[in-house]
Amino acid sequence: MFNKYTDAEVLISNKQLGKPALNDPVILSRLFKRVTNKTLKNIRPDKRLVITRPFRPASETHAINIVNRILALNEAGTKELLKQTLKEFAHRHKDIRTILMNNYRKIESHIKEPAALSEERKLLLGSCFTMEYSIESAALFNPSIVIYPKQNNLKKGQTRVILSFRATGEGHISSIVFRSAIIDRDNSIFLESVSPFLGTPDIVLNSTYNRELFKAKLEEMGQLSEAAMAIYQHLPTNFTPEEMSGAINAVRDSNAFTTADLDDTIIHIKWLAESNYEIFFPHGQLISERVVFPMSQNESNGVEDARFVRFVDEDGSATYYATYTAYNGREILPQLIETKDFHRFKISTLNGPMARNKGMALFPRKINGKYAMITRSDGENLYLSYSDNIHFWFEGVKIEAPENPWELIQIGNCGSPLETKKGWILLTHGVGPMRKYCIGVSLLDLKDPSKTIGRLEEPLLAPREEEREGYVPNVVYSCGSIILNGELIVPYAISDSESHLASIPVDELLEKLLKKN
Fold it and tell me: Could you give the maximum distance between any two Cα atoms of the chain, in Å?
């Protein structure tokens, strides 16, 4: 449980409207409250939470050698080794036998007579091509928060929420994990139990792609080479992955391009195709058991900083969206997640010159009949973009630039804008000297969010001395907040390591924002 206000530090003065010193460690008032208690002061990574991943040897020869060594075991030895393996690992996964059998099938082509193998030998083979991966072994950070789709089994006045986090493990590979919490009417926050099991979803690639949109995205990525144009010429208006493979083979057979040029083009084409897919989690799986792990080559080094928002359409229906960054170790690709229930997720690319760089955040509803999004397409300033299509963002207007001492290097958003009667609250992050990150806040006009009608000159939240140490020091950061029971509730990360919660009365914040105007 998080009992709020017991260890508060405040960076906004409620009594003094003048600017406080940015590095003043003194608690200025109780306006902004870090939510903590004596037994649980933060949300830490849990190194015990593991998923399974296929183990792929560096060469086919190595894989064949592993298979042959297992085939050489007698049946008694096979059963004994499998028994020991299951004893060590079965309690760590809900259905270890299914996992091992699925990974066996991935290497079955290396076996001459697979039908002759016992189930025990198949499972042992599967275990030798399976490895565990600790999702949160390095960090659990950059959280966002949304209202849970279903509000059942709650007491009067309670609200269930979903917290999403960027989790990182070995190799700093990032994934998205979830926690659920219950918030009482007084905004006391109870973190619900976390399952000891994790599960990755089933994946289905898009069945068809539009040729013109595919071409436009390749051009935007700077990958519309002559070889790509040649492949494009062989594609129908709407093509399947199989038809794409046929077009690639046709160009390869033409010998019109060097192997190096064609291979580089094929890599980027496949990256783009694999970045549009759907994933499915079983309905019996708890929210804390679901992991959105990198599925495509373009995400091979991580899915980063998902900014979830509950979007309410004009007909009253709700959809949860999240923008995130796919990273392959060299390049980034802005992506969009769409879900109704957090069981079935649709993943697609974001397109257009305004959907570049990192840190896009959707408004929670349409404005004047159009989707609206805060972007940082130039990596430095904040822009407002409108679109008739949520996947395409072509034009935008700059709405904020770095101007305060704590944001001299760059600014960005800390999640989707939050609607109030007096305007849109937009949490921002500013990067200042020594790349210290602070969280600020602006107020955008309700009808025309391109107009900033209030902006704090001092940070809303800055790292305390004890929060400065971590994987990336001197950082506080959030990917999304909510307004509930008259308060702004902000989950935030410290130094890219672990996560905390804080809250602030909305009316007092608005008063300060408007007085600053």
Answer: 81
Return the residue matching tokens 């130094």: 495
| Percent of the chain surpassing pLDDT 90 | 70
pLDDT at 21: 29
Integer Cα distance of 432 and 91 in angstroms? 47
Residues 6+ apart with CB under 8 A from 221: 268, 272, 331, 333
Per-residue DSSP letters for 149-173?
S---S--TT-EEEEEEEEEE-GGG-
pLDDT single digits (tens) 77-95: 999 999 999 999 999 999 9
Token duo for residue 17 = 């409207």
Q: Which H helix or E strand runs over 504? A: strand 498-505
For the chain, which domains are there? Answer: 33-47+135-202+276-516 (2.115.10.20), 50-133 (no CATH), 207-274 (no CATH)
Q: What is the pTM of this model?
A: 0.86
Q: What gap in Å lies between CA 504 and CA 155, rounded to an integer?
A: 24
CA angle 501, 506, 511 (to 5 degrees): 135
Q: In the predicted model, what is the mean pLDDT of the chain? A: 88
Give me the amino acid identity at 442. Answer: S
489 near 504, Cβ under 8 Å? no
The residue to which tokens 């109704």 are assigned: 340
Q: How many helices (H) and strands (E) does the chain have?
A: 9, 29
Instruction: With both helix axes pointing from N to C terminus, report the angle between 96-107 and 75-89 in degrees, rounded to the nearest 10.
Output: 130
Q: How many CA atoms lie within 13 A of 164 on its CB side?
A: 31
- At 459, the amino acid letter reads P
DSSP structure string for 352-382: STTS-SS--EE-SS-BTTBEEEEE-TTSSSE
Residue for token pair 């079965």? 90
Tens-place pLDDT, residues 299-341 = 778 899 999 999 999 999 999 999 999 887 777 889 999 999 9
Rounded distance between C-alpha atoms, residue 467 and residue 141, angstroms: 13
**Distance between start and end Cα atoms, the chain:** 38
382-387 sheet: strands from edge to edge = 361-362, 371-375, 382-387, 396-400
Distance CA 441, CA 456 (A): 6
Place of tokens 């159009």: 370
CB-count burial class (<10 Å; 0-12, 13-18, 19+) for 323: buried
């050489």: which residue's tokens? 72
List CB contacts of 112: < 8 A, sequence separation 6 or more.
none
Which H or E run contains 246?
helix 241-254
How many CB atoms neighbour CB 215 within 10 A?
Answer: 16
The alpha-helical segments, DSSP class H, found in 187-240 are 211-220, 226-233
As given in the structure block, the two tokens for residue 275 are 């970045």
Phi, psi torsion values for 300, nearest 5 degrees: -60, -25
